[in-house]
């Protein structure tokens, strides 16, 4: 089965499990009404390959929010929009070479985004925006009294920065699995790793994120 068995264990924390569920559902809601399901995205990609500009715009609106979130995890907020633009230029240029359904398209787009992000980091001689000080991490988590409050702020820099504070392998795995919506196999292809390694990293990252999102202020 694609989901790691450990993810079926009843609740890492009562609020934490609910937080992860809300994280998944709210991410999906951000593109609801643009392309309702994978069949529509697949059809839009095929139409875009035939030169339909409206279809390409629909694909962009459906995929861009999640893709941008992934890029932010890699390069940080100041440069994410520029890197995303570079990624979409390549996606448009190479679209006729793509073959597959909606899930494969998301994985293909994520690989392009990751490569453009790494190119950007090499060019700027910068480290990925992953890691950080544990004190800062705790302080950020404490800004929300409940996991639900933190999930409500998912679109804000504050919450995305929490994901970015995870270890790099965990942060990428979480964003690809939960935000971008890839399965373990597609995420593994994007990262150049084995699916089992991605499942493990995603599980650990989700567990840590659930702890952060569900934690109350120390001493409260």
UniProtKB/TrEMBL annotation:
GO terms for biological process: DNA-templated transcription initiation. The keyword Membrane does not apply. Keywords: Sigma factor, Transcription, Transcription regulation. SUPFAM superfamilies: Sigma2 domain of RNA polymerase sigma factors, Sigma3 and sigma4 domains of RNA polymerase sigma factors. One of its GO terms (molecular function) is DNA binding. Residues 160-209 form the RNA polymerase sigma factor 70 region 4 type domain. The keyword Hydrolase does not apply. Residues 60-127 form the RNA polymerase sigma-70 region domain. Belongs to the sigma-70 factor family. ECF subfamily. This is RNA polymerase sigma factor. It comes from Streptomyces anulatus.
């Amino acid at each position: 089965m694609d989901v790691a068995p450990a993810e079926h264990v009843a609740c890492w924390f009562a609020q934490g499990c609910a937080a992860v569920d809300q994280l998944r559902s709210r991410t999906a809601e951000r593109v609801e009404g643009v392309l309702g399901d994978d069949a529509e995205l697949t059809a839009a990609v095929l139409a875009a390959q035939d030169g339909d500009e409206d279809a390409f715009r629909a694909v962009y609106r459906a995929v861009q929010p999640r893709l941008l979130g992934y890029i932010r995890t890699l390069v940080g907020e100041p440069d994410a929009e520029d890197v995303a633009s570079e990624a979409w230029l390549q996606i448009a240029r190479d679209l006729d070479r793509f073959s597959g359904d909606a899930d494969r398209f998301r994985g293909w787009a994520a690989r392009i985004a990751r490569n453009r992000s790494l190119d950007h980091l090499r060019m700027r001689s910068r480290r990925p925006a992953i890691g950080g000080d544990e004190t800062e991490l705790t302080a950020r988590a404490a800004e929300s009294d409940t996991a639900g409050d933190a999930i409500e702020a998912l679109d804000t820099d504050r919450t995305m920065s929490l994901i970015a504070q995870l270890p790099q392998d965990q942060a990428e795995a979480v964003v690809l699995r939960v935000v971008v919506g890839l399965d373990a196999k597609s995420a593994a292809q994007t990262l150049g790793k084995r699916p089992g390694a991605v499942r493990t990293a995603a599980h650990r990252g989700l567990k840590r994120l659930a702890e952060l999102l569900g934690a109350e202020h120390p001493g409260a």
